[in-house]
Write a structure and sequence with these properties.
This protein is of the alpha/beta class. It has helices at 18-28, 43-49, 70-82, 94-99, 101-117, 132-145, 158-172, 187-196; strands at 7-11, 35-38, 56-61, 87-91, 120-125, 149-152, 177-182, 200-203. It contains eight helices and eight strands, in the order βαβαβαβααβαβαβαβ. Strands 1-2-3-4-5-6-7-8 form an eight-stranded parallel β-barrel, surrounded by five helices. This is Deoxyribose-phosphate aldolase.
Length: 218
């Protein structure tokens, strides 16, 4: 498969100016990018600038900490889909997944209903500061709740990302599509992560990537 098939470009830096955002999106019109993720306040602008492309546009919910109430998450999900998002990435706090099982179950039921009505919802967990046993517990919870797309980290180091790919791929199982976020990976690193259990990647820049390069799938 091509690199472009497994890469999602993340334009989620709140410090990005409108001018920079526009320049980046206009540049994407001539690149084989499959999808991008933007902040909610940039969603409608992204839809306008990429209207003549096939690029899917997603946005983040309760980002970056995931500490909002279930009601707040649900409201933002509906608002984002109404604004034209093709898919959503909702942040869930590790605390809920590890210590608040009843709340996690309620969230799962809420998101399932919303996804049935609106579209794809992915789950994001910031794994950078978790201990190994916590990661295993979260992976098992994700599997139990039936969430099928897990987004990990927010630009972690390559070595940590590789370790996480191994843990979560094993403990969450094949039914969960595992996305690893990295700042500026190269094609060789993506290949190693695929072999370690990752399925796809979020990147903050395409600088080191040849989107037409071929990757070997396990």
């Amino acid at each position: 498969m091509d690199v472009s098939e497994v890469v999602s470009l993340r334009l989620v830096n709140p410090a990005m100016t409108d001018w920079d955002f526009k320049d980046q999106l206009l540049a994407l019109q001539i690149q084989p990018v499959k999808e991008i993720v933007v902040l909610p306040n940039h969603l409608e602008r992204a839809k306008q600038l990429l209207a003549r492309t096939t690029i899917k546009i997603g946005t983040v919910i309760d980002y970056p900490l995931g500490n909002g109430t279930i009601a707040k998450k649900a409201f933002e999900v509906g608002k984002a889909f109404q604004s034209g998002a093709d898919f959503l990435e909702i942040t869930v706090s590790p605390t809920m997944l590890i210590q608040q099982s009843e709340q996690a179950q309620v969230l799962q039921q809420t998101l399932h209903s919303l996804a049935m009505a609106w579209g794809e919802i992915r789950i994001r967990v910031d794994s950078r500061h978790l201990k190994e046993l916590q990661k295993i517990e979260i992976a098992e919870t994700i599997k139990k709740l039936g969430w099928n797309h897990l987004v990990l980290g927010e630009g972690d180091s390559f070595e940590n990302a590789k370790h996480d790919a191994t843990i979560f791929a094993y403990d969450a199982g094949k039914a969960v599509e595992l996305q690893i976020n990295l700042i500026k990976p190269d094609t060789k690193q993506l290949q190693e992560l695929l072999l370690s259990g990752a399925d796809c990647f979020g990147v903050f820049t395409l600088e080191n990537l040849d989107l037409t390069a071929k990757l070997r799938v396990v």
